[in-house]
Design a protein that fits this description.
globular; 17 helices; four-stranded parallel beta sheet; about 10% strand; alpha/beta
Length: about 450
């Protein structure tokens, strides 16, 4: 894993991105250089257009989810994503290279090569997702522990990280409860350092259930680190593997003394400027869709097109969120707040559709323009639920240290939730965002939001 602007990315992901970008740029430059004398005048324009197309393909592949490290995607699904990417990539290649100042024959050849390069990128994305190449690049991980915490680490690695290979579990000296398969325990008389080197381990995850009474062999762990083996604790493991802060395995000291949670006027000013730009751009593009949505809501049922509801924002200050009305006007006629649930019978027919494709969220762009919300941040909750969740879930109030967002890390990583347990899961992603938020992470979230909207993932 490589950390970029506080966000963890797999080395394989970066290699995939650079391969795709390099393939397009190399193909374009190679064609220009093959043209002989005219290459010097055309090369700067062709190279800049090639970089533009490569950037567009990065956005397309990110939005279609090709750079996400998943291992349960079928070949059919990958092909469908590739075809969807081609629907945008090929026209973009044609339009971009039709602007290159060159003779008609040279321009046509450049355009053709660019379109072929786009197709090659998408074919390679499908191949890379299902070939055995990833297995040869997997990190070898030794889990230090054999109790419940070690079992949880093993389960998450097998379920979420196709680039990880668990070489075994090493039992701590004071662990009595074994909850991992006995054949996978590698203690054979060797100390931890010897076992790690013998197994050619890349990383050790410390997941001891009992750390008192000499359970932590610090000298051996230091020797492992000096030998080039990465050593991480369980909280850091969940942070980089699942991109969440697991509240079961984190303590206040880890949050206080670790890095992250950086705030500042410069960061806030830049984020505010980006919020204004993106909100205005999306409003400029989506206003016809918003107009049609307002008309459909008015035709289906009586009542206001928009609804305003009090939510908790930055530093616990309440504000009125604006959304398209997707429920009946008597949704809470008894006056008692209720969680919105999947297949909620209070949702209208139009409301069910606009929730599925997230159109109901578009009026929140006006909250962004007024400075009450950001484009990216934790989902704003109602005061009634905040009071309940703060009393039951540790660190829940931490999410109010940043502005709530139209979209967010929890929204793109976890399906819509309607229970306390769902709130815990979503909080873990929100804590990750609050700890590691940056403009780079905001951009990734907005790209993943496109994929969520296109696939209907997590619709409620």
């Amino acid at each position: 894993m490589i950390r970029i602007f506080n966000h963890y990315l797999h080395r394989q992901t970066l290699l995939q991105v650079f391969f795709d970008l390099g393939l397009i740029v190399f193909a374009v430059i190679a064609v220009v250089l093959s043209q002989g004398e005219s290459a010097q005048t055309v090369l700067p324009f062709a190279a800049s257009h090639g970089l533009s197309l490569a950037g567009c393909m990065f956005v397309i592949n990110s939005a279609t989810g090709f750079y996400q490290h998943v291992h349960n995607r079928s070949v059919t699904e990958s092909c469908a994503r590739a075809l969807f990417g081609l629907l945008f990539g090929l026209p973009l290649a044609y339009v971009i290279f039709s602007l290159v100042p060159s003779t008609t024959s040279h321009r046509d050849l450049l355009t053709l090569v660019a379109m072929v390069a786009v197709a090659a990128v998408m074919v390679h994305r499908v191949y890379a997702a299902h070939s055995g190449a990833q297995a040869r690049l997997r990190s070898r991980i030794l889990i230090f522990g054999v109790g419940p915490a070690a079992r949880a680490v093993g389960n998450t690695l097998r379920a979420s990280d196709p680039h990880a290979q668990i070489v075994g579990y090493y039992a701590g000296p004071n662990e009595e409860q074994h909850e991992v398969p006995q054949p996978e325990i590698v203690n054979d008389g060797a100390n931890l350092t010897e076992a790690a080197l013998r197994l050619n381990v890349d990383e050790i995850v410390v997941a001891l259930s009992e750390r008192r009474g000499g359970s932590m062999p610090l000298r051996q762990l230091l020797d492992c680190k000096l030998a080039g083996v990465r050593v991480v604790d369980i909280a850091t493991h969940f942070e980089k593997t699942l991109a969440q802060i697991n509240i079961k395995h984190v303590n206040a000291g880890w949050l206080v003394f670790g890095d992250g949670f950086s705030q500042g006027m410069v960061r806030a000013a830049i984020k505010r400027a980006c919020d204004l730009v993106f909100a205005l751009l999306i409003l400029a593009v989506s206003w016809p869709l918003m107009l049609v949505t307002a008309l459909a809501i008015r035709l289906e049922s009586r009542g206001p097109v928009l609804y305003r509801q009090e939510r908790v924002g930055l530093n616990g200050v309440n504000f009125k969120v604006i959304k398209f009305r997707s429920m009946r006007t008597d949704a809470e006629k008894d006056g008692k707040p209720r969680w919105a649930s999947k297949n909620d019978d209070r949702v209208t027919r139009v409301g069910r559709f606009i929730r599925k494709v997230r159109i109901d969220e578009l009026p929140q762009l006006f909250n962004v323009l007024m400075g009450e919300m950001s484009m990216v941040g934790p989902r704003p909750e109602r005061q009634y639920f905040v009071d309940e969740l703060v009393s039951k879930i540790p660190y829940f109030a931490v999410r109010h240290s940043v502005k709530p967002g139209v979209t967010g890390w929890a929204q793109v990583r976890y399906e819509y939730g309607s229970t306390i347990e769902d709130s815990v899961e979503k909080l873990q992603y929100d804590l990750y965002y609050v700890k590691n938020h940056s403009l780079f992470l905001d951009l990734l979230i907005m790209l993943e939001t496109v994929a969520v909207v296109l696939t209907g993932k997590g619709a409620r």
